[in-house]
Amino acid sequence: MTERTLILVKPDGVQRGLSGEILRRIEAKGYTLVAVELRQATPELLAQHYEEHVGKPFYEPLVEFMLSGPTLAVVAEGERVIEGFRSLAGVTDPTTAAPGTIRGDLGRQWPTKVLQNLVHGSDSEESAAREIGIWFPAL
Predict the structure, then answer these.
(1) For an engineered disulfide with 127, which of 11, 56, 92, 122 has Cβ 3.0 to 4.6 Å away?
(2) Mean pLDDT, to the nearest integer, of 117-129?
(3) Whether pLDDT at 86 is above 90
């Protein structure tokens, strides 16, 4: 089933110059890049994106991290791309992410309150539709 997902290369990935390598892996997996834009997130955009986390202890540090530099926002399309990208990304903790995954190969543990784990990928078709609408309203 062909679907779309939102992928974010978070500020740590952009700052470390890993955007190209992450995009290469997405394309090597056979997914199509539908939209790619380097953006500086705003507090308003992040409040929409992370609305389910508002009020949680990690929300403010997460927003602060996501505002710390540009984010590469990507819409990718392909067969089971949501599940496939999440597998390609690896588990959220870079220390335990499997070798061969983006986080396993490229991620590092940071001594911060927020897990800086390079990428975000939508977790369901519903989330993907909502998140793509936030980051790419014209699509």
Answers:
(1) 122
(2) 97
(3) yes
Q: Which of 120, 122, 128, 131 is catalytic?
A: 120
pLDDT confidence of residue 25: 98
Give the up-direction half-sphere exposure of residue 40: CA atoms within 13 A in the CB hemisphere: 2
120 as an active site residue: the answer is yes
pTM over 0.90: yes
